[in-house]
Specification:
alpha+beta; Aspartate Aminotransferase, domain 1; 5 helices; 6 strands; about 40% helix; YdhG-like
């Protein structure tokens, strides 16, 4: 967690900081081959130079950004977990539990789906 220490230290709300640290630490342990990165002032993880998943902290939720394809692919499970989402992010309310099994599926999907991706973001399909 040393990599994200400065980011985490700047989260003023202790509950939000603890939850964010828990999620980032879980990913670091579960997916040791992913590279932690701070970009656009947000913690994220990459694989062979391509974006896999990112996070941001807001007043009401932890935002999870797996790119649109990850949200579309897991739309039903996101709703079943009790999360709401936009086209680009999933909102985990601070008082809701983190569905780590869903998070694992989303990350694994992105790793596999982007195995041959040579750009940071997916190329949008027309």
């Amino acid at each position: 967690m040393e990599f994200f220490a400065e980011y985490l230290a700047n989260i003023n709300n202790p509950q939000h900081r603890t939850r964010t640290e828990e999620v980032l630490a879980w990913i670091t342990k579960k997916f040791p081959n992913l590279i932690p990165k701070i970009a656009w002032n947000q913690p994220m993880f990459t694989d062979h130079g391509t974006f896999i998943i990112g996070f941001s902290v807001s007043k009401n939720h932890l935002a999870v950004a797996p790119e649109r394809e990850g949200i579309v692919h897991f739309a039903d499970e996101i709703v079943q977990a009790g999360y709401d989402n936009t086209k680009e992010l999933i909102r985990i309310q601070w008082d809701n539990p983190v569905d780590f099994s869903l998070l694992e599926k989303i990350i694994e999907f992105n790793i596999i789906d982007k195995a041959d991706c040579s750009t940071f973001w997916r190329k949008q399909k027309k």
